[in-house]
Design goal:
762 residues, alpha/beta, 6-stranded mixed β-sheet, 31 helices, globular, ME_PTA, metal-binding, NAD binding, Malic_NAD-bd_bact_type
């Protein structure tokens, strides 16, 4: 069926307009970071308390970063004279773009941002306005200002201001181009100092890219710059400025077609169809073509490859590989600059940004990026030169490199003592579980346990195995077909390989098959399992295989459940590993919310637990909460509140508390109560002033799995909670059953939990 381009364009237009208009106009809003609930809050936030902060800043201006948002606040400033490919559309019409830029700052680097659109076409007057904003902001991002005015504005602002001023259209593009070029040359087996570059586009971005490539090692005499009027050559007077003149060649050649011969890299920041197929044919073998004009590049990748099949190509579009996108740069370079109080963004910081972005592409792609770009090949090579913006590791890698460069180059006013800790803190902003999981990972590193994953062919499991080898001392064991696992590792760009980096159990053909089915038969022979049935189960049931491996001592713990129903898996886990002191007595889920962690139990194991089972769950929950470095404050929750309603759940919870009270406990518990009473100390003080629970509860225990599971899912789906778990209690940390919605990061967290010896927290 032939697509209708006009109808596709209209669909995108309608969708984009709807996105900007609903549910509230625009893409930004302002939210308070402090409570404003009563007169006391008002007195501290405004008069008279606010005067104290003013006095401190007057005494020491650096305290503005301590008492105000200035240290994390960026202004995106434009006059709307060169907006995207739309040209000079004016300040007001540029506002959606600037709001979008502000959203990207917040999304990718947690930087607050105000968009400022200014009706001023005179570059010197515009610079005066920007300079006058210095008391408000920690940094300035100049955006969409036409050349050569942008050079003038940036130069004046950088000379007069003591905060970073960064024209992203120039330097952001240059940094991402530099990173892409660095990796493209690596793939092509070439060096900066040896290559010939031909560039089209003498605007701000084009000049900045060429300057960056010179800083990276390209010889200026090997750069040939063309614009609308042909080659920039010595003696040319038409449409020239000092920035173009710096790349003027002494030659009789005049056209792009004449100078393209023997070029290693074509850099296009001009317009559509500028580079012709016959020109590509004149370039060197394995040419590098950066056709970055938007929306239509200088040459389409398919057209270029018809002439040069092994060409390495990047564009500015998202529908082709290697999109050169400034969002890979500006959030992270500003993050690093703000965090050390840099007075400017200098060459050293920009090159550090180049190196960080390039390094990221050569690393194994994160599971988060793979999930955001499903179906795309994300393995370093000709079609993957630069990372994807949604790779959450960018902020840690790039921003810490920028901060380090700022300190080493002497422009950091607030140097960071521990860069490793700073990088870890940055990662915590994108991996919400990182801080809470830190003690668990540290314990797992000291243990070196063997973890068997029963669904070893699953992509999430493969990425987890890679993560285990990178972040822990555990040994992953995967159950699955070796050829399938190896093929998927290669396709996903993972460095790990079966048999070398991890063990494999092949259910179709494993030398231990006899040992496994006979072991299973011995365990289950008095439960109606015949030898033939045991043989069949050990060929087809990977959960049972994993349980037998733990039973035989060939693995220390197992993780299953990435597909299927929880209690189906639990049946086989309990068959093989239950009995004696081991019995599944509850599933505990940690849900990480914006205002802190909340543990929920029992979410899966017992539908309607008895009082004895509830007490058992409470004791287990207290033990597990301490694994995360937290003191348990446990609330037993029901529709009944301290006996005000006669209901089954309330009665069972009260009976459970009586059981708990029979023995002194080293943790706090209270109930039965409503959820809001558990989480609101003031409400609880009014209803039950003699409660032994102080502060907010961090563990909620329910008398029915439906209630526990419902709260868990609501917090995940509507409150943006991140789940760690469910943690299977009662099995001595020998088995855990996850849910099918778990991510690779979630599996890695569960591997760390499984990797901790039970003696560490019991």
């Amino acid at each position: 069926m032939t697509k209708n381009p006009k109808s596709d364009t209209q669909t995108l237009r309608d969708a984009a307009l709807h996105y900007h208009a609903y549910p509230n106009p625009g893409k930004l809003e302002i939210r308070a970071t402090k409570p404003m609930a009563n007169g006391r809050d008002l007195a501290r936030a405004y008069s008279p308390g606010v005067a104290e902060a003013c006095i401190e800043i007057k005494s020491d201006p650096a305290d503005a970063a301590k008492y105000t948002s200035r240290g994390n606040l960026v202004a995106v400033v434009t006059n709307g004279t060169a907006v995207l490919g739309l040209g000079n559309i004016g300040a007001l019409a540029s506002k959606p773009v600037m709001e979008g830029k502000a959203v990207l700052f917040k999304k990718f680097a947690s930087i607050d941002c105000f968009d400022i659109e200014v009706n001023e076409s005179d570059p010197e007057k515009l610079a005066d306005i920007v300079c006058a904003l210095e008391p408000t902001f920690g940094a300035i991002n100049l955006e969409d200002i036409k050349a050569p005015d942008c050079f003038i504005v940036e130069k004046i602002c950088r000379e007069r201001m003591n905060i970073p001023v960064f024209h992203d259209d120039q330097h952001g593009t240059a940094i991402v181009v530099g990173a892409a070029a660095k990796n493209a040359l690596h793939v092509a087996g070439k060096r900066f100092e040896d290559i010939k570059i031909v560039s089209t586009g003498g605007g701000a971005a084009g000049i900045a890219c060429l300057n960056m490539l010179v800083k990276l090692g390209v010889k200026r005499e090997n750069i040939w710059l063309c614009d609308l009027h042909g080659l920039v050559y010595e003696g040319r007077t038409e449409d020239m400025n000092p920035h173009k003149s710096a790349f003027a060649q002494k030659t009789d050649l005049r056209t792009l077609d004449q100078v393209i011969h023997g070029a290693d890299l074509f850099l296009g920041l001009s317009g559509p169809n500028v580079l012709k197929p016959e020109m590509v044919a004149k370039m060197t073998d394995r040419p590098i073509i950066f056709a970055l004009a938007n929306p239509n590049p200088e040459i389409l990748p398919d057209v270029a490859r018809e002439v040069s099949p092994n060409a390495i190509i990047a564009t500015g579009r998202s529908d082709f590989p290697n999109q050169v996108n400034n969002v890979l740069c500006f959030p992270f370079i500003f993050r690093g600059a703000l965090d050390v109080g840099a007075t400017e963004i200098n060459d050293a910081m920009q090159i550090a940004c180049v190196e960080g972005i390039a390094e990221m592409a050569r690393m194994t792609t994160s599971a988060e990026a793979a999930a955001a770009y499903q179906g795309e090949q994300l393995t370093f090579g000709a079609d993957y030169l630069i990372p994807k913006p949604f790779d959450p590791r960018l902020v840690g890698v790039v921003s810490s490199a920028v901060a380090k460069a700022a300190m080493e180059s002497g422009v950091a006013q607030r140097p960071i003592d521990d860069l490793a800790a700073y990088r870890a803190k940055l990662n915590q902003t994108v991996f919400k579980s990182a801080l809470l999981m830190k003690p668990v990972f540290e314990a797992a590193k000291a243990a070196a346990r063997r973890i068997v994953f029963t669904e070893g062919e699953d992509e999430r499991v493969l990425r987890t195995a890679q993560g285990i080898l990178e972040e822990t001392t555990e040994t992953p064991i995967l159950i699955g077909r070796p050829e399938v696992i190896e093929t998927r590792c290669e396709r996903l760009g993972l460095h790990i390989r079966p048999g070398t980096d991890f063990q494999i159990v092949n259910p179709e053909n494993d030398p231990r098959y006899y040992d496994y089915w006979t072991s299973y038969h011995r365990v289950m022979q008095r439960e109606g399992v015949t030898p033939d049935l045991a043989k069949a189960i050990m060929r087809t049931n990977t959960t049972a295989i994993g349980a037998i491996m733990v039973h035989r001592g060939e693995a220390d713990s197992m993780i299953c459940g990435t597909f299927g129903e929880y209690r189906w898996h639990m049946n086989y886990v309990n068959q093989v590993l239950g009995g004696g002191t081991y019995e599944p007595h509850g599933a505990l889920s940690l849900v990480i919310l914006e205002d802190g962690p909340l543990f929920i139990g029992d979410t899966h194991v017992r539908i309607e637990p008895t009082p004895e089972q509830i007490a058992q769950t409470v004791i287990g929950a207290a033990r597990h909460v301490r694994r995360f470095g937290l003191e348990p404050k446990i609330a037993l929750c029901s529709q009944s509140q301290f006996g005000n309603t006669r209901c089954d759940s309330g009665a069972r919870l009260r009976a459970a508390i009586e059981i708990l009270d029979e023995t002194p406990r080293d943790f706090i518990y209270e109930g039965e109560m409503n959820i809001d009473t558990a989480l609101d100390p003031e409400l609880r003080a009014r209803i039950f002033p003699n409660s032994r629970l102080e502060g907010e509860a961090n563990v909620l225990i329910f008398a029915h799995a439906d209630a526990a599971s419902g709260v868990r899912n609501i917090l995940k789906m509507r409150a943006g909670g991140l789940e760690v778990g469910p943690i299977l209690m009662g099995m001595g940390n020998r088995a855990h059953i996850v849910s099918p919605s778990i991510t690779a990061r979630g599996l890695l967290n569960m591997a760390a939990i499984a990797g901790t010896p039970v003696t560490h927290y019991s």
